[in-house]
Design a protein that fits this description.
There is one protein chain. It is built from eleven helices and eleven strands. Helix 2 packs antiparallel against helix 10 and helix 7 packs across helix 8. The chain is globular, with a radius of gyration of 23 Å. The protein folds into two domains: about 150 residues, 3-Layer(aba) Sandwich (D-Maltodextrin-Binding Protein, domain 2); about 110 residues, Periplasmic binding protein-like II (D-Maltodextrin-Binding Protein, domain 2, 3-Layer(aba) Sandwich), CATH 3.40.190.10. It starts with a helix and ends in a 15-residue tail after the last helix. By secondary structure, the protein is of the alpha/beta class.
C-alpha cells in the first residue's frame, strides 16, 4: 500500500499543478443611469463608464468579471457587507470613506445643473440660480436617495431641506423619472449632471419645456468638486483590487479615453471648454502618471 501511494503522489501533484487556478471574482455594481451605462436602444454599450469598465476588464485577467445592477442603497449595502464588489463614478465624501476604498482620481465631471420648466426659469431671471434661495423659497426638488451631487450641493441640501422643498425617491432611471415628473409639473426642479440632463431631455423630447441653469454656489470655485473615482469594498480584497486598477491607470491612457467618452455626451459648446478645463488637473496628464 505504501508503495502504491508513493507512485501515485507524483502523478497527483502533476495534475494539481497543471489544473487552472480559480480566478478571484470582481463584480461591478452598476445603476440604471444613462449615459453612464446604456444597456438598451440605439446607444446601447456607449455609456461613458460602461466603456471605461470594459477597457479595465480587458486588463484585469486575474479576475472573473461579473456585473450586477442595483439601486444606490443596495450598492452601499453590498460594498459594506461583502467582498468582491466595486463600482465606478463615485464622488469622494467623508461618509463614504468610512466604508469604501478609492482609486486614483479618474474623471472630472462638469458641475451639476438645476433643471426646471421654462416658465420658472423666466421668473427667476437669466443666468445661474442660487440653490440655497430656491430651497428657502420652498421650490420642490426631486432628489435621488443615496446619490451624492458633490460636497457643496450635498451640504446645501442638508442645511436647507424640509418636507416642503425636497421629494426623495429611489428607483430605476432616476434622472429620466424626475425629468418626466418635472415636465408634468409634479416637481419644480432637480439637480443632476449635465450629461444626464442632455441625454434624457432628448430621449423624452421635452427640449421645449425645460431648461438647465448653472448653480450659483458652484460658480468660480477653485476646487476639484466633481472628480469621480472607482470604489471597492474596504477589505484586503478591496486593497488588492484597487491596487490592480491603479496599476492599469498609471501605465496607460485610461483617463484620457474615459474623458473622451464622457465629453462625447456633452453639447459641443460645453465639450470645448471641458477639455480645456482638464488641463488644470495634474492627475489628468499622462506625463504625470508615474509621479502619483
Amino acid at each position: 500500500m505504501l508503495r502504491v501511494n508513493a507512485l501515485f503522489f507524483p502523478f497527483l501533484l502533476a495534475v494539481l499543478l497543471s489544473s487552472p487556478v480559480a480566478a478571484h471574482q470582481l463584480t461591478w455594481l452598476v445603476a440604471d443611469a444613462p449615459p453612464l451605462y446604456i444597456d438598451q436602444g440605439f446607444y446601447a454599450g456607449q455609456g461613458y463608464w460602461q466603456q471605461g469598465l470594459e477597457q479595465l476588464n480587458d486588463e484585469l485577467s486575474q479576475y472573473e468579471i461579473k456585473k450586477y445592477q442595483a439601486t444606490l442603497s443596495r450598492q452601499y449595502a453590498l460594498l459594506q457587507e461583502e467582498d468582491e464588489f466595486c463600482a465606478a463614478g463615485f464622488f469622494k465624501t467623508a461618509e463614504r470613506q468610512q466604508f469604501l476604498l478609492y482609486s486614483l482620481p479618474l474623471l472630472h465631471a462638469e458641475n451639476a445643473v438645476v433643471a426646471m420648466r421654462k416658465n420658472l426659469a423666466q421668473k427667476l431671471g437669466e443666468g445661474a440660480v442660487s440653490l440655497t434661495e430656491m430651497l428657502q423659497k420652498n421650490y420642490l426638488f426631486g432628489v435621488s436617495s443615496g446619490r451624492s451631487y458633490g460636497t457643496i450641493v450635498d451640504t446645501l441640501f442638508r442645511q436647507n431641506r424640509t418636507d416642503k422643498n425636497v421629494f426623495e425617491y429611489e428607483g430605476e432611471s432616476l434622472s429620466l423619472g424626475f425629468l418626466e415628473m418635472l415636465s408634468r409639473g409634479r416637481i419644480d426642479a432637480l439637480v443632476l449632471p449635465p450629461t444626464d440632463y442632455f441625454y434624457n431631455v432628448k430621449l423624452l423630447a421635452i427640449e421645449e419645456q425645460v431648461v438647465a441653469r448653472p448653480i450659483a454656489e458652484l460658480m468660480d470655485q477653485d476646487i476639484d468638486e466633481h472628480t469621480t473615482y472607482i470604489v471597492c469594498s474596504k477589505s484586503r480584497w478591496g486593497e488588492e483590487a484597487i491596487a490592480s486598477i491603479n496599476s492599469i491607470v498609471r501605465r496607460g491612457s485610461f483617463r484620457q479615453e474615459l474623458a473622451g467618452a464622457y465629453g462625447a455626451w456633452l453639447p459641443v459648446e460645453l465639450r470645448k471648454t471641458y477639455f480645456k478645463k482638464l488641463e488644470r488637473f495634474p492627475w489628468y496628464s499622462a506625463a504625470l502618471f508615474q509621479k502619483e
